Amino acid sequence: MKKEHVKEFYDIVWTEYLPEFDASKNHLEMFFTEEEVKDKEILDCGCGTGIFTNIFASMGAKNAIGLDISPGSLETGMALKKKLGLKNIDFVEGDMLNLSYGDESFDIVWAWGSAHHTENPMKAINEIDRVLKKNGQLLLALYKKTKLTWIHEIIRKILIRSPKVCWVIISKILAFFLWPIVKFREIFRKKSRKGEKLEELILDWYFVPIRFYYKPEEIKDLLKRKGYTIEKYLPGSGRFESASNFIFKAKKSI
Ligand SMILES: C[S@@+](CC[C@H](N)C(=O)[O-])C[C@H]1O[C@@H](n2cnc3c(N)ncnc32)[C@H](O)[C@@H]1O
Fold first, then answer.
1. Is residue 125 domain-shared with residue 246, that is, in the same domain?
2. Based on the domain organization, do 161 and 245 belong to the same domain?
3. Quick one: 112 and 165 in the same domain?
């Protein structure tokens, strides 16, 4: 049931917003070079707008698949594919808890900010691991558990009770008031993911029906136990310290 709510939620979010292409490409290139992407089979798991799927395809992937449970999101991705005239790309409606692909199907699985919105993030990670080829590369971005997590959770649980039709407008109002603080903080703090609107981040942060948080160390241990070699680790990438994702790029060695 909660899964249905997530689906409906992202049908609203990702038909309303599309992150900037160039800013998102710069962001992706922090993790993958054109050489790494070229001729690879890539799965963008929980692709949202499909911005990264389209970027992978435009960088020369053999084929890039954007998978998501939200049909609205996939339509946004397909519209961008059409606009860019890309052929090496598919969008598929599916559940990352039960991927329909065989074992070891992909060279790269990119799962930015998606596993923590499923009902069972550990199962999602197991599925990603299953479909990734040996020596394949994984990108996993998850919400970080911080000292402020409980406060954000209280706010989210209050806001989520408001009528759905008000969610976008509440996010816009909050963005209006928070904008000066965020701009001021950006002078001192470099953020790594640009090209997203503040109201979009607030909507995604406070109104999403399911979210889990993790400590980087527990995910690092998990990946090591599964036989991954960590290639890159970034402790955060959000506008607010507490809102950060942490990111692991890792190679499946076993
Ligand atoms: C925060 S968005 C991230 C989107 C995209 N990866 C990005 O970084 O722009 C999370 C996405 O995960 C998708 N999602 C949530 N649960 C899912 C599931 N069980 N299977 C597939 N996709 C799912 C949502 O529909 C949503 O588009």
1. yes
2. no
3. no
Answer with the one of 206, 225, 244 that is the final residue of a domain.
Answer: 206
Do 103 and 225 fall within a single domain? yes
pLDDT in tens, 193-248: 455 677 888 888 899 999 999 999 999 999 999 999 999 999 876 544 445 789 99
CA–CA separation, 145 vs 50, rounded Å? 26
Rounded distance from Cα 187 to ligand 1 centre (Å): 30
Q: How many residues does the chain have?
A: 254
* Burial class for 26, CB neighbours closer than 10 Å (0-12, 13-18, 19+): middle
In this structure, the answer to whether residues 38 and 164 fall within a common structural domain is no
My answer on whether 193 and 77 are in the same domain is no
pLDDT in tens, 144-195: 998 889 999 999 999 999 998 888 889 888 888 887 766 665 655 555 445 5
For the CA of 19, the closest atom of ligand 1 is 9
The model's pTM: 0.89
CB 238 within 8 A of CB 193: yes
Q: Which domain holds residue 18?
A: 2-145+211-252
Mean pLDDT in residue range 56-75: 97
Measuring from each residue's beta carbon to the nearest atom of ligand 1, which residues come in under 6 Å?
6, 10, 14, 46-49, 51, 68-70, 73, 95-97, 112-114, 117-118, 204
- Provide the number of structural domains found in the chain: 2
Nearest to 81 by CA among 57, 109, 111, 61: 57
Which of 56, 68, 125, 142 has the most ligand 1 atoms within 8 A of CB, as the residue to mutate?
68
Q: Probe ligand 1: pick from 5, 43, 69, 142, max atoms within 8 Å of CB? A: 69
Q: Please list the residues that pair with 160 across neighbouring strands.
A: none
Spacing, Cα 47 to ligand 1 middle (Å) = 6
On whether both 94 and 166 belong to a single domain, the answer is no
**Given the CA of residue 112, which atom of ligand 1 is nearest to it?**
6
